[in-house]
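Quick one: structure tokens for this chain, please?
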Amino acid sequence: MHGATDGWSFPVGLTAALLLFALIYARGWLRVRRVASTAIPLWRGGTFVLGLVALWVALGSPLAAMDHELLLVHMVEHVLVASVVPPLIWLSAPVLPMWLGVPRWFGCRAHAAIASGAFRPLRLLVTHPITPWLVASLTILGWHVPSAFELAQQSHWWHWIQRASFFATGLLFWWPVVRPWSAVAQLPPAAVPLYLFAATLPCDALSAFLVFCDRVVYRQYLAEPRHIMMSALADQQAAGAFMWVSITLLYVVPAIAMTVRALSPAQQRGGEEWTDTSSTCSRATAQP
């Protein structure tokens, strides 16, 4: 284990960037709480911090230094970045705090650009229910094609592009599920379980292929020195099994929760909460 992490060094840039995002969120959250103390509960702020910590673990911790040696570690990284961090970020209701947390001139310019309607076609595209599902599925399958996977492993820049694409499409995928802003409700609550179940299918197919394949798919792991007593084929099977179980749980549990919520008479309460939250925006913006 020690030899596998010898190349790790503390990621100063990544850590500083994540701390900056945390400070921006905290500043905006405090401004919101000054005008509406119950608008964004403390637990939501906690999910934002937890999401940033999970992102740091996936991309900057000693664990990340082992992804060139073990496919299992690489798969843990991908699941964290694409399926754990995004819902945690959206659960924190980040839109309003991040907008109010940045300098006023930046927030005003961003609001003016959005209000101008220039991004309306893109917004309609990305919030359409089929787009997040399709983009996220194609991203996962595309990066696991052996040639693309090995390109990302051999190039530092391509590796970061791969990570960024998983994170971006993860945010896009979980947007209609968590609904961090009421204006994006284009997927009916009753359809969310089907949306999540359908998303498990390409992941299950890839996982099953890795588990039951009798050869090592990514030849790079045959050439890497191994500091852990696990063959490349066993590592591949463990990675596939981890993806299979983790994705199933991460998607099925929210699907069950959303089903219960859709059947509950109090399911409209969430929409009222977001309406109340958004109404505090102008008052919070007016505060110094």
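The chain has one domain: 3-286.
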